[in-house]
Amino acid sequence: MRIDPDYPHQDRAISEINDAAREFFTQWMVEQVADDPALAEKVVPDYVCLGKRTLQDNGSWLAALMRPNVDLVTDPILRIEPTGIVTENPHGSGDESAQPAGESALESERESLAEFDLIIYASGFHANKYLWPMEITGRDGAVLSEQWGDEPTAYLGITVPNFPNMFCLYGPGTNLAHGGSLIFHSECQIRYVMGALDALISGEYRSIECRSDVCEEYTQRTQAELRTMVWSHPSISHSWFRNPSGDIFILSPWRLVDYWNWTKEPNLSEFLLQP
Questions:
Q1: Which residue stretches belong to region Disordered (predicted)?
Q2: 176 three-state secondary structure
């Protein structure tokens, strides 16, 4: 998962073992769709192996794409018309034959219309919008959604400056794309939160709040580590891991054993404690 800067074939892989994995998976996929070279060109990724979330497929997905009543269209969608979807036609041979009477014609020959009775609009989800659409207000009127914007950050993915007594489970930067259990991750977070609450109660404090400099240092360290990982490789032009600016704030680059060690108990010197 880590980029080897000395590997000479960065255009296709991040390391020797990553290149071997790419060759293995590519060969398997091409063998499944050997009778349709055009489909093979569409389904074989053009980015480094494991750079995006990997589809776990036993062959049924590729088999479905091979059915005679199925077409995989990867041309950009321009708009949705009353009768179907208009896509960009890079070959410039627009198809107006399906255009129903009374409807506006295709705007150019570089458009194609495919008619549908039903459209399932599966456009994904807001991966960067944590705790959304809740509106959470912290100290001095700080609004969590405004403080985060497109760059949600939290110390250890758990606690946020300006928001005393607030803790997150499965918060920013805790998604695991390199293996491991989110249940284990959540258990680490719960242990950490319980330690903070115990300190709050036993010390008779009114509030406990992560220091902003502590959170910022952790964020910078995490971002530096993420830049060495496969998800940040330049061959990946877009993915749901990235925010609109192309940066990654939802994934953890850390080893599970390190995260476990960091969350065994809170270091109270990293917090502002209000008596």
A1: 85-106
A2: coil
